[in-house]
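Design request, tokens follow.
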């Protein structure tokens, strides 16, 4: 590189740094969101040339209008909000999904980015469980492993509890994401590490390893984090045809974990659970390996049964292969078969069909029904509840 080119590069870097510093120190002093003492939340946005500003989030049924005040700052205050993790974006003059420039905290859900904030009013409420507290912390690792079944290296997220290095062996929960998700979903959107840290610190859950694999068997890792490059995320992963299904390749994950971590083996020390597609994977994997998992959790599960039509119960009655697999699973006496779903979930009837079949056969299960639909707000509740029931 010539002396002239070096000087140009230094000047360019200096300009970029100055621009970043100007944004940091010279932008209008706007705080947003502001969590007020009465449980309300105020959103503020500096947009002096805007004509119409709204906020959309999971705390309002429709976009709420902001009112322009002094110096071009638009504001809106909610009613009192219950303890929870909330998501939101702004709509500015017809442009939707605009992130709050005053809030650096965002989550990605498939192809959507939204700002987040947490409300907590008392120790142990949902907001408190989802935030980082002054408790012993476990570690999250992004772990690459070989999958002989899929003939590729793959990545998963592994949570090890506080004090892992001092312990001898730990039970393992395999926690699976839904369609469009990846190995980052439960740790980011699901707050899995915060929930486990807090429950373990309170003595409500046993110290455990939590394994969050990538359920897209045509992918090695999350979008942009493997050799496929920066493709657009979708419900079907990378779009390539996989060599095998998640349930067919699942023992590659179990074998890796049990050969590389301090694991207590045996079905009484293994749990498998997941949301939506991951609930379907849990359903399929547990019946394919009936003596492997002592605890099975189906969160808003996508239940796959062979046959035509939308009547899941009728398909159970005709699918003899699934009937035999479930008979083997319940003959092995799982410690817990757990089904949870929201009242307005679009998969509600599928799960009702499964429960109808289990009731007919006299198979024991625990059932949890909550308000709302196919949403992370419910899945965090189910993880919190399930984690307190396993390995006891």
């Amino acid at each position: 590189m010539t002396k002239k080119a070096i000087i140009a590069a230094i000047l360019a870097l200096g300009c970029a740094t100055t621009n970043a510093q100007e944004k940091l120190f010279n932008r209008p002093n706007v705080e947003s969101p502001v969590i007020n003492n009465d449980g309300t939340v105020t959103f503020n946005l500096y947009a002096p040339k805007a004509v119409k500003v709204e906020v959309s989030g999971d705390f309002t049924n429709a976009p709420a209008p902001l009112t322009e005040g002094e110096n071009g700052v638009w504001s809106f205050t909610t009613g009192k909000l219950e303890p929870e993790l909330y998501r939101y974006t702004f709509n500015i003059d017809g442009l939707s999904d605009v992130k709050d420039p005053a809030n650096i905290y965002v989550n990605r859900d498939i192809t959507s980015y939204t700002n987040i904030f947490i409300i907590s009013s008392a120790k142990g409420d949902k907001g408190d469980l989802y935030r980082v507290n002054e408790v012993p912390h476990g570690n999250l690792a992004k772990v690459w492993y070989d999958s002989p079944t899929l003939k590729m290296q793959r990545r998963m997220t592994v949570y090890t509890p506080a004090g892992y290095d001092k312990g001898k062996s730990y039970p393992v929960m395999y926690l699976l994401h839904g369609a469009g998700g990846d190995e980052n979903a439960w740790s980011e959107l699901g707050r899995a590490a915060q929930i486990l840290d807090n429950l373990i610190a309170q003595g409500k859950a046993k110290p455990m390893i939590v394994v969050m694999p990538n359920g897209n068997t045509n992918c090695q890792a999350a979008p942009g984090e493997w050799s496929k490059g920066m493709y657009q995320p979708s419900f079907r992963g990378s779009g390539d045809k996989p060599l095998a299904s998640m349930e067919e390749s699942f023992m590659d994950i179990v074998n890796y974990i049990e050969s590389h971590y301090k694991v207590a083996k045996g079905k009484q020390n293994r749990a498998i659970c997941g949301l939506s597609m991951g609930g379907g994977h849990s359903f399929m994997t547990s019946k394919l390996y009936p003596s492997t998992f002592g605890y099975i959790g189906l969160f808003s599960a996508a239940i796959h049964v062979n046959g035509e039509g939308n009547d899941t119960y009728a398909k159970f009655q005709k699918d003899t292969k699934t009937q035999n697999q479930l008979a083997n699973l319940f003959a092995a006496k799982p410690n817990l078969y757990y089904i949870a779903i929201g009242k307005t979930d679009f998969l509600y009837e599928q799960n009702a069909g499964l429960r109808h079949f289990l009731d007919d056969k006299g198979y024991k299960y625990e059932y949890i029904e909550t308000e709302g639909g196919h949403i992370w707000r419910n899945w965090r509740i189910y993880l919190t509840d399930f984690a307190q029931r396993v390995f006891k």
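Comment from the thread starter after seeing the answer: thanks! Residues 149 and 249 are 6 Å apart (CA to CA).
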